[in-house]
Amino acid sequence: MTEPLRLSVVLIAKDEAELLPECLESISWADEIILLEANSGDATKEIARRHGAKVFSAGEWQGYGIQRQRAQQHAGGDMILMIDADERVTPELRSAIEQVLNSPLQRDVVWSIARRNLFLGRFMRHSGWYPDRVIRLYPSHYQYNDNQVHESLETLNASIRPLQGDLLHLTCRDFTRFQWKQFAYAEAWARQRYHQGKHCSFCAIFSHTLAAFFKTFVLRAGFLDGKQGWLLAVVNAQYTFNKYTALWALNQTAKKGPL
């Protein structure tokens, strides 16, 4: 009988002392836990070490994609499970992952996981927030792309298979902090597109904003998520407005030249 594949759980984190303990407890069964922290000012490093994680410090921040690449470089497992501090592996998901680990290594297969996203006290079932499948379990020769935000795994021609069980994602526990994060994502998105030579017309700002609301609330059945569905549709529209307005503003500033 062959030995099970070794699993490395990989995280990137900054100032996640509050959320980290429950996350690490949910993955304590892994062969190793790798945490790459970015100049945390709280007890992130100490908590991680207390839970048996191998802690490394990052250099200059270059975006989420590169940060995940850096973190994975420290992993020694056959398989990688990439998660965040605000996520928790459920017992059902653990069982599904262990079935993969107890099978021969499949180098051309990656696995997607359904996330249950928390928004203002409710785990959403619609609105495009469930099952919200993300590719997070994969052989160690795959890695993430360089995107500053909305980074994803470079799967090449790999076959994608779904895993049973959910990954709990505490997306929005504190609305103010959630909004600040959305602002940061929007700015990073706009700057990345600007440096790629992308443009946005004034009218496109509003067409994209209205489309985001309609997509969340109607096409993705956000109305079935009650009050939170309404609010999430507005939040998604606001995020879209911020993204495209920031891109438009960057291009307007470039046209006028330095002040």
Q: Can you tell me about this structure?
A:
With 259 residues, this protein is α/β, with parallel strands linked by helices. The chain folds into two domains: 7-172, Spore Coat Polysaccharide Biosynthesis Protein SpsA, Chain A (Alpha-Beta Complex), CATH 3.90.550; 175-256, no CATH class. It has seven helices and nine strands; from the N terminus they run βαβαβαββαββββααα. Strands 1, 2, 3, 4, 5, 6, 7, 8 and 9 form a nine-stranded mixed sheet that branches. The longest helix is centred in the C-terminal third of the chain and has 31 residues, at 226-256.
* Number of contiguous helices: 7
Report the helical percentage: 40-55%
What is the fold named in CATH at topology level of the largest domain?
Spore Coat Polysaccharide Biosynthesis Protein SpsA, Chain A
Spatial extent as radius of gyration: 20 Å
- Strand residue content: 15-25%
Under the CATH scheme, the architecture of the largest domain is Alpha-Beta Complex
**Uncertain spans, ≥5 residues at pLDDT below 50?**
none
CATH homologous superfamily name of the largest domain? Spore Coat Polysaccharide Biosynthesis Protein SpsA, Chain A
Number of domains: 2
| Major sheet characteristics | 9 strands, mixed
Question: What is the 3D form?
Answer: globular
CATH class of the largest domain: Alpha Beta
How confident overall, as mean pLDDT? 94
What is the CA-CA span between the terminal residues? 70 Å
The secondary-structure element order is: EHEHEHEEHEEEEHHH
Class by alpha and beta content? alpha/beta
How many E-type strands?
Answer: 9
